[in-house]
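Fold this sequence, please.
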Amino acid sequence: PENAPYDDQRVRNAVQLAVDNAVILELGYAGHGAVGENHHVGPMHPEYAELPKIARDTEKARSLLEEAGHSGTEFDLVSVSGDWRSNTSDAIAAQMRDAGFQVKRTVLPSESFWNNWTGYDFSTTNWGARPLGVQVLGLAYRSGEAWNESGHANPEFDAKLEEAVGTFDADKRRGMMSELQAMLQSSGAIVQPFWMNEFLHHVPAVKNYERHQFREIHLENVWIDA
């Protein structure tokens, strides 16, 4: 984050603490998912590490905002128009207002929003899943990456990520991921309210067919029960 007020970690952490991700999941996507933890790695990733839970704390959020000198600053939350993405953004804005933030909502049509999706100071974006946590972190949070919309840049994070990418065994990688997840979470780079459920329909005769998070089709372990 380069532009004020988002260049101040206290402000970014205040935004995180103002938002209850479980409530946003319920209001934004009718509860059809898993609560996110503000580090963009989830239980579906083989190297996911469980971190201590952080609860919403509006009093601490206000304190951090005042300490940073931004209690009167207006935050413009940008989103694409329509469906769950706009609803999710509305719910985030409402919780921020409830915590004492001044919040404006800018809603753009799809053709306008996606022309500049990495260029907004404060916006919501829907990300497609990736099979591995290191893939998500490499695409979205490594310094200088084209899709690094948050502007997250931390040489220590980059070095630890490089080590994790070079570690094939997920169990060995998990210790590194614990550090990476904690670093990203504490940086305040993102509020990630939830992971969306993926749904799959098939006739009962099809056995062992699972919905892949990246929508890949793996039939090597699937059979039809005659």
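The beta strands are 33-35, 74-80, 102-108, 194-196, 206-207, 223-224. The longest strand covers residues 74-80.
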